[in-house]
């Protein structure tokens, strides 16, 4: 379930992915790449292009202008994907200039439409195209003849390097020598010393390998290019990490950026976010501290807020540092950083920062396993107070209040609150979420509702809520082609969906869901652990149902690395299946003590049921009764219907073994309805098999033919076994099918149905030979 306020992307300087970049000191240049873009814009204004292709080209204009310089091959490939005809025209135009003479380039600039006169084209003066053309014309007209000649030679190199055959099989572009006086729009003269210094600092980018932001560039970026790059990457890391640069490539690009400007604060912050992706605690903390140091030294905060800006940076630096330590489980360091942030915020009377600190404080208490209900309630009350009294921070406090209520609902679910109370609390906040289009909170609410219904054993309701979330259209503005289905809430919903399908034996659908999760959330992303654990649990349960314990055992190590509690519980299950009772009992006892301290009620109940099964193996049915009654009471207290039904199944089996089948059948009648409505295929099959055995015992049937059995009840038991066999066939559960065919053969023999008896006996024999393992007594297993 999505935890409350665990986003590590909060930064007052990077709102909605917009990065306020520092000045690099690098100006825009008249480069061969910009001439290529100019040729593209000219062809768009001078020729007729079909409407769909023109739309694609229009979307491409701004990224080409603002992004890093591309090689000719990358540029032509990008244009060709949108409009092959225009790409050919651009290539022909560039060839005419590169293979011709200097006057051909002069002629090209002379035929460009003037932005002040081109009223009916894209080159109008107020359009993006017109502004770019005007900028380029001003820059070109300012050049001297020698500078124009250098530009022409650079264009020839730019064009011919694309077609040149290189011995290493790579196509590269030689570095272009240009100084500040050649291309600067403002300088009229230069000195030799200044030119040398500016060549070292302001060398233009001509060797960029950045195509669609998927490869790092080789050189300094202009201010606009840096702003565009950082804004895009910050947005993608927050909303669609899979489309952002790979961690290594982004690290190389940021290192290159910081090499030319070490005081670029926002690059350090993006470096911090990138380090968090690969769980690099040292580099992430180092980059975060550098960000706030550079931010304070640069004076960006102080210029807008005076002395208050300095303190604001300090308290948010401490708050971000606390969130960083929370992410890595360093609770003591997180607590110290959080206390520092609270102290500075109180001194400055910053209610917004204090509200964030309180949210992180109860989140930290939750992570440590402490009861944080009081802190959460205080946070909600404080946020509600500021919602009514301070309209400036109304939106933020509403957001934090909603997060606090969702956290209270999460705590209430684990503490045994009834479903209708929790749903009423979520309903009131959901109305505000939809009213104000807070899509992130809507997604968290739907994922939380899915988890709550699943925990309460209402699989149909959980499935409905998961589908509602997955089919919801995003309320957020979609930029950079990002799809809003990559948050933690979507991951949780998809994992629940996969587990629900696995419970019904629909493993082909499970494979498709997990494949989508693997593509959407690669292993290095922050939410990948959720689907990894889900995948391991599904594989484990499938192998256990099929009796392939040797395949289930290796999964325990990987599961323990993601969740120690789940790993220990699964290990006990495998040991129990392998008849290593003593080891299994020891693990279950340790696990029960740990989960009772951590208040993991679901695991405690499951541990009790598994311990009762161990008592069965030694015929300790009387010893198992107190455990089962305790588990049933705990499940009912916390309204866990699925676990309560499973406890009743265990209780009915124990009663059957103690010789009271009528009481066992009565318990089954109470438990079987929710199992058939919301239970897994395995639970349905086990419940029907146990019902058939109780019916056989009530009918007075004996395998040796002694006594008079009620044949009507025996016929009913045969039908019940057929239904159970259909469920076990879905899971390929051969051991259970072997038990069913054994019972069916005996019942058909008692009914005088020879052909059906022989068929059941043959199926039993085939399965027994295939399994090649001694069948445990049917009456000793649920």
Automatic annotation (TrEMBL):
InterPro entries: Apc5, Apc5_dom, Apc5_N, TPR-like_helical_dom_sf. The keyword Acyltransferase does not apply. Pathway: Protein modification; protein ubiquitination. Residues 268-367, 615-673 form the Anaphase-promoting complex subunit domain. Its main location: cytoplasm. GO terms for cellular component: anaphase-promoting complex; spindle. The keyword Transmembrane helix does not apply. This is Anaphase-promoting complex subunit 5. It comes from Sphaeramia orbicularis (orbiculate cardinalfish). The gene is anapc5.
